[in-house]
Inverse folding.
């Protein structure tokens, strides 16, 4: 047996050992979790159970249930200020994860670069690499609030047809963009003739200050953008594995081709649950309100402790600098875990610019956040007095 | 930020002060913490809480105790009692309701629409004490026409709180 060289060469995450340590340890307060701490709202779960009882346990159309695509199209229209045909411009996938993989594979032509801003969600780089794209990191720093600037993008060497991968609000930094900033970026994208994959999984219900501006809603961007969204975060449905892509017909058709042979269809139980989720605006808003309170609390307290942290605009992560401690992020995370039993994710997991940072998830109950902060305070006293 | 409490049929929303929503969930949070969470000053939060207290919007702060989980020899029996009453001139149901809810054995008392008028929740040490309360105190009141007693066998959920231990966190302790 021989293993594909590309896979062999894919470096396993350097901090795997740290994660195994966390998972094996008892009584840890974990701020390392990248999924909601709420249960899926019961009306969603109950409606999926009911559909299973009625015998909806089959394959669906490759593209996903017609009704779900129609409902998603209706949901997107006022938000994206443009309409997507449920018949051939929307594809239901196994989470945004699958949609991302399909998109990269479908768009992978020789010598095509994938521009990825980092620190970013861990799967982008490997997914691009495995798809045969040439992944290129665009470093973002606290100086620009972890945003890609139009100047930076303009100065990056690109060719016509390259892919620009955007994620806002961003995991792990919480960075997001207002309309003016996006319009500026769009100008550069147009000029450079780039295609955008926009991962907006934290967009609708996890943007806290001001409105989320979806990328396809910008002038001229609909034809240049593949919009990705899903149910995992907004409705606390990570385990249901439902996401979707909306974009130009040709891209969706190409993605559907791969999807129909490799996945067949997203699970029908999840699709049934997703249909109900689209009626759960109130539930999603109430979870958002809770995240928002924790966001302000954790960020205010971290800054008080001397760990500089920008106020994240969205998602549910605080990305704090630990540079004042003199430790590197892996060392900090290790020691904090061993001495105080608090788990955080070292910033380097999200790319080289994460060095000197840690990610703390506030998808964690407020009493655990308080306890974790008090332990971090104790830890800092001991090490940085 | 204020959270819509009720979404009306016409799509409009009614709002409640977020401070009340926060306190309803966790009354042990300090004014400082609530101030940080809501982006208000501590003084503003304190002022509003004081106002709510003085206006009777906030009545008191207490723990939600799951008595079924308390290990004790003292048994508690609860009953829900439907009470049919004759409303009185000028005061309607209020006078008779007061007469009833003032007993310390009465834990809750509601005026309802439908087949009967008052729903009274009574607590006692055993079935006997509850039944004698009903037969001696409630049923004998002048305006009470009749009662139906339902003994409560098990509480599952009360005021939004599920009354049994919920399974712990099922998530992996690290994920991206
Ligand atoms: C930015 C981002 N994109 C995509 C995903 C994966 O989402 P899904 O559950 O829809 O596959 C995550 C999950 O953590 C994420 O943070």
């Amino acid at each position: 047996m021989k293993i594909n060289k590309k896979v062999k060469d894919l470096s396993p995450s350097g901090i795997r050992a740290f994660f195994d340590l966390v998972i094996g340890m008892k009584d840890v307060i974990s701020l390392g979790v990248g999924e909601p701490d709420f249960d899926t709202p019961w009306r969603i779960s109950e409606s999926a159970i009911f559909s299973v009882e009625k015998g909806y346990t089959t394959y669906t159309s490759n593209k996903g249930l017609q009704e779900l695509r129609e409902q998603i199209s209706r949901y997107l229209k006022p938000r994206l200020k443009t309409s997507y045909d449920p018949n051939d411009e929307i594809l239901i996938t196994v989470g945004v994860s699958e949609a991302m993989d399909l998109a990269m594979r479908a768009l992978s032509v020789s010598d095509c670069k994938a521009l990825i801003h980092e620190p970013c969600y861990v799967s982008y780089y490997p997914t691009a690499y495995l798809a045969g794209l040439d992944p290129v990191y665009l470093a973002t720093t606290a100086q620009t609030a972890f945003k890609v600037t139009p100047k930076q993008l303009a100065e990056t060497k690109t060719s016509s047809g390259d892919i620009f991968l955007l994620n806002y609000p961003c995991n792990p930094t919480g960075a997001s963009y207002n309309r003016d900033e996006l319009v500026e970026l769009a100008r550069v994208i147009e000029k450079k003739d780039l295609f955008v994959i926009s991962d907006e999984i934290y967009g609708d219900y996890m943007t806290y200050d001001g409105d989320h501006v979806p990328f396809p809603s910008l002038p001229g961007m609909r034809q240049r953008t593949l919009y990705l969204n899903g149910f995992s975060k907004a409705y606390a449905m990570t385990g249901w594995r439902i996401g979707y892509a909306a974009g130009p017909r040709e891209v969706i058709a190409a993605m559907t081709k791969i999807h129909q042979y490799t996945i067949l269809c997203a699970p029908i139980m999840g699709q049934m649950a997703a249909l109900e989720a689209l009626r759960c605006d109130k539930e999603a808003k109430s979870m958002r309100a809770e995240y928002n309170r924790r966001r302000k609390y954790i960020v205010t307290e971290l800054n008080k402790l001397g760990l500089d942290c920008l106020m994240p605009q969205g998602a549910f992560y605080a990305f704090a600098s630990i540079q004042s401690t003199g430790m590197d992020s892996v060392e900090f995370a290790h020691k904090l875990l061993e001495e105080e039993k608090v788990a955080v994710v070292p910033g380097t997991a999200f790319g080289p610019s994460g060095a000197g940072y840690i990610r703390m998830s506030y998808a964690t109950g407020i009493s655990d956040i308080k306890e974790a902060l008090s332990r971090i305070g104790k830890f800092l006293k001991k090490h940085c007095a | 930020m204020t959270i819509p409490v009720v979404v009306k049929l016409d799509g409009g929303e009614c709002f409640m002060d977020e401070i009340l929503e926060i306190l309803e969930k966790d009354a042990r949070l300090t004014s400082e913490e609530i101030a940080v969470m809501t982006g208000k000053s501590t003084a503003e939060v304190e002022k509003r809480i004081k106002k709510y207290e003085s206006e009777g919007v906030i009545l008191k702060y207490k723990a939600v105790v799951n008595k079924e989980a308390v290990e004790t020899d003292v048994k508690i029996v609860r009953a829900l009692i439907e009470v049919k009453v004759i409303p009185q001139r000028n005061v309607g149901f209020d006078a008779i309701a007061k007469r009833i809810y003032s007993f310390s054995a009465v834990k809750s008392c509601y005026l309802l629409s439908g087949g009967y008028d008052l729903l009274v929740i009574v607590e006692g040490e055993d079935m006997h004490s509850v039944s004698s309360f009903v037969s001696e105190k409630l049923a004998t009141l002048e305006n009470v026409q009749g009662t139906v007693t339902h003994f409560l066998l098990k509480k599952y959920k009360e005021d939004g709180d599920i009354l049994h231990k919920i399974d712990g966190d099922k998530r992996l302790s690290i994920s991206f």
